[in-house]
């Protein structure tokens, strides 16, 4: 039984998977999309010369800049009935992880997952509608963002004027945005889900916790998030998107106590989780991947 794990860049950080494979007695091939090849003669898709059909499961771990290659792998895997993780890749060429936040939000809301109230559209539309719909403060997010690099808190009209020019420049480059109600949170629960099963959670901080603390609305926050509800929501959100290895952020409004999904991360980092829980995440992922082989 041979499992293929693919990444957009170098394969060095996949070594823990290879080692976990040795412990479990599963052969793991860690490869980069740059090793992909085919010839129009037979149209066999190979990675370092080996037909992808030789693998029982393909886990696309990180796409990076390689969505072109990921699409080729996905269609070959679907055609040859090789199970794909994350399963979103098997949904068709337009769907792949990481999902843009615009499509992610739409799919989650449609699946009945509670999300912060959101509008998507041109910047002109967002800047016109968001202040009326949400009042101040509200959130603007680049749909492409990750690790908090493209999220802005707009506290008043002055701040809106301040960031407007910068956002307009980004929009001209082709970036898209959404506006969102601001949820008063000082922490989030990062729930790790593998193949529909919740492995556990870690508590992480939030970007505007000091601002929220200054608002003095944190009374209900002392009540911990109910574990069952958190787990159920996180697992449903991951499933709705077809992200089988997911880090789902669950939040609760300090003021109202309402619970929301903030986002579903594919290929989440798990150093902190592993340290706190002692769970060998690579091993758990491999165990899941082996259950998919026919
Ligand atoms: N609607 C929101 N209300 C309050 N804080 C938010 C909201 N959206 C995002 N944030 C804050 O910004 C951070 C990054 O946002 P997120 O949607 O997770 O994007 P990214 O993909 O960049 O991590 C979150 O961890 C949270 O602290
Ligand atoms: Mg995030």
TrEMBL record:
Keyword Metal-binding: no
Pfam families attached to this UniProt entry: RimK
Gene3D superfamilies with a match to the protein in the record: ATP-grasp fold, A domain, ATP-grasp fold, B domain
The keyword ATP-binding is annotated on this UniProt entry: yes
Coiled coil: 153-180
Membrane-spanning parts: none
Protein name as annotated: ATP-grasp domain-containing protein
């Amino acid at each position: 039984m041979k499992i293929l794990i693919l990444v957009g860049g170098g394969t060095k950080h996949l070594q823990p998977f290879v080692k976990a494979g040795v412990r479990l007695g599963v052969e793991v091939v860690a490869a980069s999309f740059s090793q992909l090849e085919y010839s129009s003669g037979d149209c066999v898709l190979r990675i370092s010369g080996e037909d992808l059909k030789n693998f029982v499961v393909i886990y696309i771990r990180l796409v990076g800049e390689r969505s072109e290659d990921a699409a080729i792998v996905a269609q070959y895997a679907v055609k040859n009935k090789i199970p794909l993780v994350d399963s979103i890749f098997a949904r068709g060429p337009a769907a792949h992880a990481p999902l843009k936040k615009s499509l992610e939000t739409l799919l989650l809301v449609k699946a009945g997952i509670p999300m912060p109230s959101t509008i998507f559209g041109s910047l002109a539309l967002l800047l016109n509608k968001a202040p009326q719909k949400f009042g101040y403060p509200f959130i603007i997010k680049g749909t492409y963002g990750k690790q908090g690099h493209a999220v802005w808190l707009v506290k008043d009209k002055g701040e809106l004027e301040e960031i407007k020019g910068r956002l307009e420049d980004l929009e001209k480059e082709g970036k898209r945005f959404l506006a969102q109600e601001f949820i008063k949170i000082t922490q989030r629960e990062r729930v790790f889900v593998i193949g529909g099963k919740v492995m556990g959670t870690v508590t992480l901080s939030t970007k505007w916790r000091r601002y929220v603390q200054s608002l003095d609305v944190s009374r209900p926050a002392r009540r911990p998030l109910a574990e069952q509800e958190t787990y159920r929501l996180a697992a449903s959100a991951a499933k709705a998107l077809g992200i089988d290895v997911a880090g789902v952020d669950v939040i609760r409004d300090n003021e109202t106590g309402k619970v929301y999904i903030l986002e579903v991360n594919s290929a989440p980092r798990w150093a902190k989780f592993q340290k706190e829980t002692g769970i060998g995440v690579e091993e758990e992922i491999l165990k899941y991947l082996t259950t998919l082989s026919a």
